[in-house]
Amino acid sequence: MSNILVVDDEKDICLFLHHLLSDKGHHVTLCTSRQEFDQAKGNQKYDLAFLDVRLPDGNGLDILKDIRAVQPLCKVVVMTGYSTVKTAVEAIKLGAYDFIEKPFDDIEDIEHLTERLLTDGALPSQDHVHDLAARMGCFIGQNREMNQLFSLAYKFAQKNVTILIEGETGTGKEVLAHFIHEASLRADYPFIGVNCGAISEHLLESELFGHTKGSFTGAAKDRKGYFELADKGTLFLDEIGEASLATQVKLLRVLETGEFMKVGGENVLRSKARLIAASHVDLSKAVTKNTFREDLLYRLDVVKLTIPPLRRRSHDIPLFIEDYLKRHELKLSFTEETLELLKNYSWPGNIRELVNVIKRAAALAEGETERINPEYLPPKITRHIQGALETAAAVSQSPPKKPGFDSFLEQWEWEIREMWKSEDITELQLVLDRMKELESEAIRAFIEKSLRKTVGNRKETAELLGITMRKLRYYLNEKK
Question: How confident is the model at residue 478 (pLDDT cuts 50, 70, 90)?
């Protein structure tokens, strides 16, 4: 018999879970408020807790933190409605094992989840994640951020929720989407990927939703679109920010109702495909520029997974190269000097660029050597390293940094000027990174200045800055 805690302000939910779990021989403690939880949390040790994220006198995430602190061995399952799924995502990041959506669709799912957590001790381990990734030829490495990313992706794969993947060009957004598909219950159904930026605006709608014969010039017969072809599988929309506003309206309808019509068609069709979207641009900024619909972003941004750029996990580069050479049966090795050069490069093209560098080195070395020296690397890499060393030397001679936005501006301007005056060409990606840093620091500084003026009143601050409360929350929570 296990001790199970249920925290939910809906008494019907509490009674339902009490009967369901008690019949299985478990001892169940019910709490309908934060106050009752505070009284019950220290009475006994709990093996499992079902936690609602919304309570009349408390925040479910705060209760989760309490449980994790007081009873770290207690496994927590978060209960949520659709409107609070994003909160459940935060709960997973804070240590919850899983979440279930209310109203409950299948009682057996709760029974199986309870049994698995109480008998197996946990959801699939990190070994399961790495095993699946290895079977797919998907490299995770030792980087902590990447391991957390794939663990979250694995957990959300079996949930029927929309996922938004963000990351720079070449980071492997489609690889992650395919991993989610293979880890989901839809793995036996099709995975279809489409790059919205590679298809013209006029053809994209037809590609997504299909068309009927004669609906436009060249439509010689009826054609199924990707939503229909994906069936019960997964549809991956890469670079969704490139879709026209008219297409975005139809995408919104599919997400809200599951319904769509072919171009030129009269019949309403239904799609059971799971949607995964991706973008290398910040869709929130696209909303402010009126190039992306805010309501569509709200529907897409249920679970957001951000892939870190390769320069933030450069220590995994030797491991990636070793894995790549082994998978492609290439009898080559990279010298330590070569690996150090690769680890210190900025990789604006990320994993895609690294793969191209490996292929280039293998092609040049074929028939000559099995040891890859720096001479087999593209000149841009060696030039970049030399330029970075000169810039670092120049920066070391600059005045020491002082706190405050004014001093940041002075330092930022000085570094940009040094890049501009340098005889070597500075890679554009480095300039773009510095521009993004300026933007982030400027936003933070102006918000803090306004908050000081309003004595912390966020509503008044948003009005003074001419932005919405949602946008202010985004800048405060995301732009850190």
Answer: low
